[in-house]
């Protein structure tokens, strides 16, 4: 009988140990969770709407660019009013000229093309722009007076591609 009681006691201890180690015990890890309300994000806007541009000669007189014939020393200016939309925290954009490269006939050997000059209400501003508004952009094409002989006599210049573009940039110090 003693043996039987010893066996029953050992069996009870073994079952209890198995229950404690096998998941039936209190070997628990605590955890908890909660949710936050991060809100929503709304995208900004970058847009440009261009009015009809105006071409003028060196004296400021309007010219019909589609029929104008340039000669060495000519200076043509293109001016266009741009309604610029810049909406967003840290939004910034540059205004650049397009259609002024060699593929359009403008090379350093025959014409000097300036960077766009920007004004708001007649006051000069520089890129990058950081607020919406009406911007006047002006670019100048000066045909070199040093062209000699018959150089560029029948040259074709494509003024039809001249335009201004608004390109988003990262404001300085925000990279």
Mean pLDDT: 84
Instruction: Give the C-alpha Rg.
Output: 38 Å
Sketch the topology as an H/E string, one letter per element.
HEEEEEEEEE
Number of helices: 1
Strand content range: 25-35%
How far apart the termini lie comes to 85 Å
Helix/strand class: alpha+beta
Instruction: Please report the total strand number as a whole number.
Output: 9
pLDDT < 50 stretches = none
Shape: rod-shaped
Largest sheet, described in full?
7 strands, antiparallel
Share of helical residues: 10-25%
Question: Care to describe what's here?
Answer:
The protein is built from one helix and nine strands. It has one helix at 2-24; strands at residues 45-50, 54-56, 75-87, 93-98, 111-113, 117-120, 123-125, 133-143, 163-168. Strands 1, 2, 3, 5, 6, 7 and 8 form a seven-stranded antiparallel sheet that branches. Strands 4-9 form a two-stranded antiparallel ribbon. The mean pLDDT is 84.
In short:
By secondary structure, the protein is of the alpha+beta class. The chain is built from 1 helix and 9 strands.
Present the secondary structure layout.
Layout: H1 2-24, E1 45-50, E2 54-56, E3 75-87, E4 93-98, E5 111-113, E6 117-120, E7 123-125, E8 133-143, E9 163-168
Antiparallel strand pairs: 1-3, 2-3, 3-8, 4-9, 5-8, 6-7, 6-8
Main attributes of the structure:
rod-shaped, 1 helix, 31% strand, two-stranded antiparallel sheet, 175 residues, alpha+beta, 13% helix
């Amino acid at each position: 009988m003693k043996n039987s009681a010893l066996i029953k006691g050992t069996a009870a201890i073994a079952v209890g140990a198995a229950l404690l180690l096998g998941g039936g015990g209190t070997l628990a890890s605590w955890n908890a969770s909660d949710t936050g309300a991060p809100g929503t994000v709304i995208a900004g806007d970058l847009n440009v709407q261009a009015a009809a541009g105006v071409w003028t000669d060196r004296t400021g007189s309007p010219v019909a660019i589609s029929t104008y014939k340039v000669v060495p020393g000519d200076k043509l200016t293109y001016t266009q009013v741009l309604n610029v939309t810049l909406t967003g925290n840290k939004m910034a954009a540059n205004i650049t000229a397009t259609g002024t490269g060699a593929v359009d006939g403008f090379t350093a050997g025959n014409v000097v093309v300036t960077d766009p000059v920007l004004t708001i209400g007649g006051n000069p501003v520089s890129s990058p722009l950081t607020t919406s508004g009406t911007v006047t952009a002006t670019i100048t094409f000066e045909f070199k007076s040093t062209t000699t002989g018959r150089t560029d006599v029948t040259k074709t210049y494509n003024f039809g591609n001249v335009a201004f573009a608004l390109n988003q940039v990262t404001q300085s110090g925000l990279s």
